[in-house]
Structures are given as structure tokens and as C-alpha cells.
Amino acid sequence: MNPAENMLPAGKGGFWIDTGKTGIASWIFSTDHKRIGLLYFWSVFGFFLVGVLLGLLIRIELMAPGRTIMGPQTYNALFTVHGVVMVFLFIIPGFQGSFGNLVMPIQIGSRDVAFPRLNLFSWWLYIAGAAIILTSLFTGGGPPDTGWTFYLPFSERTGTNVSLAVFGVFIVGFSSILTGVNFVTTIHRLRAEGMTWGRLPLFVWSLYATAWVQILATPILGITLVLIIAERLLGTGLFDPARGGDPLMYQHLFWIYSHPAVYIMILPAMGVVTEIIPVFSRKPIFGYRMIAFSSLAIAAAGSLVWGHHMFTSGMSDTAILVFSFLTFVVAIPSAIKVFNWVSTLYRGSISLEAPMLFALSFILLFSIGGLTGLILGAAATDIHVHDTHFVVGHFHYVIFGGSGFAFFGAMHYWLPKFYGRRYAEKPAILGWGLMFVGFNILYFTMMVLGMEGMPRRYYDYLPEFARLNFVSTMGSWILAVGLAILLVNLFRGLRSGEPVGNNPWGGATLEWSIPTPPPTENFAKEPVVTHGPYDFRGAGIP
Amino acid sequence: MDPNLITTNRAVDPVFMFIFGVSLLLLVGITATMVGFVVRYHRSRAPEPTSRAESSIWLEILWTALPTILVMAMFYYGWAGYLALRNVPRDALQVTATARMWSWSFTYANGRTSPRLYVPVGKPVLVNLVSGDVLHGFYLPAFRVKRDVVPGMKNNHAWFVATRAGSYDLFCSVYCGEGHSAMITTVEAIPEAAFTAWLQEEEKAGGDAGKALLEKHGCLGCHSLDGSTKVGPTFKGLFGRSVTVLTGGAERVITVDEEYLQHSILDPGADVVKGYQPVMPPFPDLSRDEVRAIVEFLKRAK
Ligand code: HEM
Ligand SMILES: [Cu+2]
Ligand SMILES: [Cu+2]
């Protein structure tokens, strides 16, 4: 046996060893979608942990009024970096890069993505962008303090290192566009024989819709970021009223990308949940067509609602009328999905294992996020809660309770397939339970604080907000303990847990039909698909 | 007061009630159904699925139509309530709010200025919003009113009416830098007669012109008089102290005298006290006499 193999946890096989290459270079220069998927997974997940740490520090500062552990400038940098890391380095690249790469090609019966080298390049661009962002924190005028939205004219005046950080985000954006192009091409061109559009797993449908958003919306972010840099370095004055510019134009440009970006974060999460629920209910998904269609509808209509971030901005009332209306239109396909998920449970045979618990709690937390979104879509009520902790609570429900919990679900559902070993069930459930409870304490209180009028991005607050802020911080600690239990259990399991078979959950999509871990070639011979993704009988599963 | 007057609260609060009410019903319905199914069809009770239904056109129509009706109702109420926030009553009292990093100042028609927003009870107030530097947000949670204060934007305003006397929080809602969360003041709603008297009163802040200027220009948003550290160094005991400043990147120790104070007000970027950010804006509008009055006051700030 070669020595490198000894370093691998026992039980590894398939793509881990079958090329005979196991050194670091065989990973960071690999064009295998599974290796790239794991590279992405570990990088985005590393940044998630960094973001969590920053989030916990924010909460400690807010635990009591006045200075707790840091000064205002540090606090402002903290929430900015927390937001930038979580949005641009974790959740936007997260699903597509890791689980999209790991399972999408297998699910459509392909050997790899359409452009494997471009895929590797995307990861490298992501790493380069991330490195630039990290550099910006420790050089020049120090970490940016603008909030993740970089609103002008403030971001033009601040002495902190905004230009470099923005340039890093710009590079990460390119990585996102390239992944989008790669995935759209792959899904169009590389489906196996018999893998018709109507047999495409709904996770793939959601990636497909997401990829289009990445391709169409991200360039606008790129342009906007370049304009910020031009504003700072060349003094173009496009957005600075002191030079005849218009700050509202910046806000439009920013949100034209950043609202659709919310769908880059949530659509694949919905796709994950749509995979997990039927498998753990042993029942076909209810309303396949409606779910696939609603992904596309959300992606399309979602590009037209960015103005709901600007109801107080001074934009015209007519614009508010139109954007408020369109925002409510987008709510409808999301509601359809929720109803279809719940109906899938009806008369099923439900097993509550860790992935399923994450999927079910996704439904609940996403519903709370979506319903509070209605308050933000209605013009009258948005005015009161805009820019308060209500919004902070709301979007954490959507991107953490929604996308984040779906990400954990995906980790427990798919990672054992690629590692060949699994975690223990009981600690996973304990971890999930603590996270769920902690999460709600943490963010529900924030929404109440927002209703009471506490603005966001607030280093300090009046005594009347003290009690709930304290409670919220306690919630963050419960969440952190749950998260620690969950992760230690999962990662220890992946190293040295029980070996898993080819199809531990009884899924009918193609990834469960090949060996665990999958070989580099995925399929020994090109598969011919004869049944739908949720046709458990057709797949020969009892 | 006119009982039919549509206050901003009366326009907005019912919309909150409606949306929260419907949302709560939906959430409870979804959760109860989900939990009910999970319990009833748990594998221990239902070892095999008893249905393979893949879709139902009627259900899909039902649960497309139902949310459509609900969200359209929400849209409509939301819009109607918003119009009330935009339609300023004709007899409203006009005040101009000037936001700057990081303080508020309010100017009345007769020229009187104040760091707090005094208003008469029961009378609608139209607040014109002006910013000289970056974006700020004019936020009165008690009245459900918020509007961004955009530099360079003309005719930017919000209105509200206080139906009861009292002191209400006024926050800056748009992030504007280091002192954002300290950019707080209050609305003081007082009876009409008292308000009229207040408006006519000579501006005097303890009879001191220097202190009045500090309040008017928002200096006290960043510099305290009681020795506490805010965004900038405190004024207490400042005169005669020796401090380390950065001049063009080089450190030097100086003793605070009249000349240094004057210079720091007119060109704050030149010497920045070590440990503080170079964020103070210059005040080119101050006349020589005004600067002198401020310096005189600072000399006495012990
Ligand atoms: C332990 C987990 C987390 C904690 C304790 C936490 C806490 C917070 C808090 C308290 C704020 C508000 C700061 C303020 O307005 O003053 C905030 C902002 C934010 N959080 Fe989190 N958060 C966590 C996880 C996440 C995750 C998973 C995401 C996204 C995937 C996320 C994305 C954001 C964003 C985008 C902001 C806005 C930053 C800004 O205002 O510029 N957070 N977080
Ligand atoms: Cu949006
Ligand atoms: Cu502010």
C-alpha cells in the first residue's frame, strides 16, 4: 500500500484513491467535480465558521448597553465583515460550489460538468477573491466599516480599506458567473439517456434556475463594485451629491443584483429540502411540475423586485407602488412550494433522521422568514421596520434558518455518500434541537426589538432595549453549543464512523445507484434512466 | 384635537394587525398540519406509505389562488396606509431637520434652532430633511415614521402628529459611521401654548453663546462635556492639557491653547488626536466671532 493511502481514514475508496493520486496537488489542481466540490465545501464552510465567530462577538457586544468588549469602530467593522463573509464567501458560493458540484453531475447521469477546467478555475477565483478580502482586513486603513451594502456616499468617504475589499468581492463574483455558465451548459448538454427534463431531480432544477440568476445578475454587481472603486480612487462623483451625483442610483444598482442574490442563496436550499422530504417519507414529491415551475418563476419575477429595499430611500411613490406589488407576486410561488412539501408528508412513512429534521425545520423557519417578509413588502409597514433589527431577524430566518439549515441537512444527507462513513444519530439530533431552540431565541427577539424601534447596525442602544438584547445573546450561545455538538459529531463520523452502503436513505436519484464513495468515473457504463427521481418502486426500493 | 385626523399611527397599525394576523393563521396552520402528519404517518405507525399521489390539479389551484388573494389584500392595505404617510395635512407646522455626522439640529420658521425637536401636541408637523454629508435616516418609532435623509435631495420630507404630550425617541436609521448609534435625540411634544412661548424665547443655552453654538452645530454629538469618551475627545478639561496628535502621519505632543483650538475647528484634519479617527468635518460656515465664542467656552469647560 502506498503511504499516502495510510493517511486516509479507513473506508475511503472510490474517487479518493482510484486515480492513484492523493497528494495536495491532486486536490487543488483536480478537475474532478467531486474533489472540487469538497474543496468548495471546506472553503465555504471554513468561512461560515469565521462568520459565526464574528456573529457571536457582535452578540456579546450587544449583550448590554454601552461598551461591553469593543469600541464602535471595531463593532462597525465586525458587522461589515460578518455580512461580507456570510453573504459573499459562504452562502452565495456555498450550495452551487459544494453540493452542486458534488451531486449535480451524478444526478443527471454524467461523468463530470461540461467544463471541468473552468470549474477548477472558478474555485481558484473564489480563493483569490477571498484572499484579497482577507488582506483588506489587515492592511491600509483597516477592515471596511460600511456594512455589506457599501452605501455611498459614506463608503466613498471612510478611510477604511473599502476599495480592496470591494475588489475581492468583484473577483468572487466572476467565480459565481463562471459556475453559472458551467451548470447551465452541463444541465442542457450532459444529461444521460432517458434523463428528460421531467425526470430531472428537483435539486437540479433549482440549481438550473439559480445558475441563470448568477449569469444574468452578477455582472451588474461587478459593474457596481467597479464604480465604487472609481468613485474612491478617481473621484468620478457618480453617486456623490456633492459632485452632482445621485446616491439613489447606487442603491438601485446594488439591489438589482443583491435581491436576486437572495434567490441564489435560497433556491438551491429549497432544492435540497425537496430531495430530502420524499426520501424520508418514502413517497414521490407532491406537485413535481409546480415545484420546478415555481423555481423558475421565483428566479424570473425575483429580478424585478429589488426596489423593496428602498421604500424609505426617497424613491418616487409610483416606484414604491410597483415594487410593492411585484414583491407580493413573488411570495406566491414560495407559498406553493411550502404547501407541496407539507402535502408530500401526507400518508407517507416518515422517518425523523437528522437530514429530515433539518428539512422540516427549514419549512418552519423559512415560513417565518417569508411571512415576516410580507410586512417588509407592504409599503406602510415596511416604513416602520426598515433598517431595524426586525429586518436583521427576518433575513436571518430566511438565510440562516432557511438556507443555513438546508445546508446542514445537505451535509448530513450527502457527505456520508462521499466519505463512505457516517455520523452517530443521537448527537446529531441533540445538536439540531439545541440549534433550533437557540436560533429562535436569538432571532425572534431581534424581530421584537425591531418592532419596538431598535435600528440595525447599532453599536449601542437605549436602556429600554436591554432585556431582549440580553435574551438574544443567550440564544446565540445555545445555538453555538448545538452547532459545536453537531459538527464534532458529523466530522468525527465522516472520519471514523460506521461505513455506509450505497443507498443508506433509500433514495431513487442516481447518486444512490453507484458505489459509496463514488468512483472518479461515477458510472461504470453510461446510465440509461428509466424512472423518475422520486419513483422509489421504479428504482427497486421497497 | 380633531378626532377624524388620520395620524400616522392610525394609518399604519391596522396594516400590521392584518398582516401579522393572517401570517399567524397561516403559520399555525402549516405547522399544525406538518406536525400532525409527522406524528400520524411516522414510520412506527405507518411502516409503508399508503398513497403514491403525485399531484392534484385542484389542490394546486386552491393553494395558488388562496395566497394570491391574501397577498393582494396585503398589498392594497399596505399601499393605502403608505399614502397616508405621504399626504401631509395642509396646515402642518414646518420644521427643517439637519442631519450630520453625528447629530441632529432642527430649525423653525422664525430661525430658532434646537437640538431637540419641539412640537405642539395635536398639530401635524412637516419635517424637511436635509443632510450635508452622507445618508442618514429620520426615524420616529413611536409614530411609525421613517425617511432617509439624502444629501442633495430637494423636497424630502416626513410628517407626523403627536396626539399626546411626552418625549419620544428620534433615531438615525441609516448607518452613517462611527457615531451612528449615538445619533439620537428626542421629539418633545408640549401643549400648543407652551410651544408658542418656547418658539419666541430667546435662544439661550445657559446664557452662553459658545455653548449654544456647540449645540447648534452638533459638536456635542461627538464631544462630551462630562469627561466621557465619545467619537471624539471630551471637552472637559481640554484647555491646557497636553495631547499627542498626528500631523501628516507624524506624532507630536502639543499643549492645547487658543490657536490649536481655532485651528482644530476650521481644519480638523490637520492635527488628529492620537487614538481617534480623522472623521470630524470642517466647519467653514462659522464666523470669526463664532469661533472665538466657542473657544472662550471651551477654555471654561472644566
Ligand atoms: C451564530 C450565528 C449568527 C449570529 C450570532 C449573527 C448575528 C448577527 C447580528 C447580531 C447582526 C446585526 C448587527 C447589527 O445590525 O448591528 C447580524 C448581521 C448580519 N448577518 Fe448574522 N449572525 C449569524 C449568522 C449569520 C448567517 C449564517 C448569515 C448568512 C448566511 C448572516 C448574515 C448576516 C448579514 C448579511 C448581516 C448584515 C450585516 C450588515 O448589516 O451589513 N449571519 N448578524
Ligand atoms: Cu430583496
Ligand atoms: Cu446614522
Automatic annotation (TrEMBL), chain A:
Its EC number is 7.1.1.9. The chain crosses the membrane at residues 38-58, 78-103, 123-142, 162-184, 205-230, 250-274, 286-306, 318-336, 357-380, 395-415, 427-450, 470-491. It catalyses: 4 Fe(II)-[cytochrome c] + O2 + 8 H(+)(in) = 4 Fe(III)-[cytochrome c] + 2 H2O + 4 H(+)(out). It is a multi-pass membrane protein. Residues 27-530 form the Cytochrome oxidase subunit I profile domain. It holds the Pfam family COX1. Gene3D superfamilies: Cytochrome c oxidase-like, subunit I domain. It comes from the Bacteria. PROSITE patterns: COX1 (PS50855), COX1_CUB (PS00077). Keywords: Cell membrane, Copper, Electron transport, Heme, Iron, Membrane, Metal-binding, Respiratory chain, Translocase, Transmembrane, Transmembrane helix, Transport. It is found in: Cell membrane; Membrane. InterPro entries: Cyt_c_oxase-like_su1_dom, Cyt_c_oxase-like_su1_sf, Cyt_C_Oxase_1, Cyt_c_Oxase_su1_BS, Cyt_c_oxidase_su1_bac. Pathway: Energy metabolism; oxidative phosphorylation. Cytochrome c oxidase is the component of the respiratory chain that catalyzes the reduction of oxygen to water. Subunits 1-3 form the functional core of the enzyme complex. CO I is the catalytic subunit of the enzyme. Electrons originating in cytochrome c are transferred via the copper A center of subunit 2 and heme A of subunit 1 to the bimetallic center formed by heme A3 and copper B. PANTHER family: CYTOCHROME C OXIDASE SUBUNIT 1 (PTHR10422). Belongs to the heme-copper respiratory oxidase family. This is Cytochrome c oxidase subunit 1. It comes from Geomobilimonas luticola. The lineage of its organism: Bacteria, Pseudomonadati, Thermodesulfobacteriota, Desulfuromonadia, Geobacterales. The gene is ctaD.
UniProtKB/TrEMBL annotation, chain B:
InterPro entries: CcO_II, CcO_II-like_C, Copper_CuA, Cupredoxin, Cyt_c-like_dom, Cyt_c-like_dom_sf, Cyt_c_oxidase_su2, Cyt_c_oxidase_su2_TM_dom. It is found in: Cell membrane; Membrane. Residues 1-89 form the Cytochrome oxidase subunit II transmembrane region profile domain. Belongs to the cytochrome c oxidase subunit 2 family. Residues 205-302 form the Cytochrome c domain. The keyword Lipid metabolism does not apply. The gene is coxB. The keyword Metal-binding applies. It comes from the Bacteria. Its cofactor is Cu cation. Pfam families: COX2, COX2_TM, Cytochrom_C. Residues 90-201 form the Cytochrome oxidase subunit II copper A binding domain. It is a multi-pass membrane protein. Subunits I and II form the functional core of the enzyme complex. Electrons originating in cytochrome c are transferred via heme a and Cu(A) to the binuclear center formed by heme a3 and Cu(B). Keywords: Copper, Electron transport, Heme, Iron, Membrane, Metal-binding, Respiratory chain, Translocase, Transmembrane, Transmembrane helix, Transport. PROSITE patterns: COX2, COX2_CUA, COX2_TM, CYTC. This is Cytochrome c oxidase subunit 2. It comes from Geomobilimonas luticola.
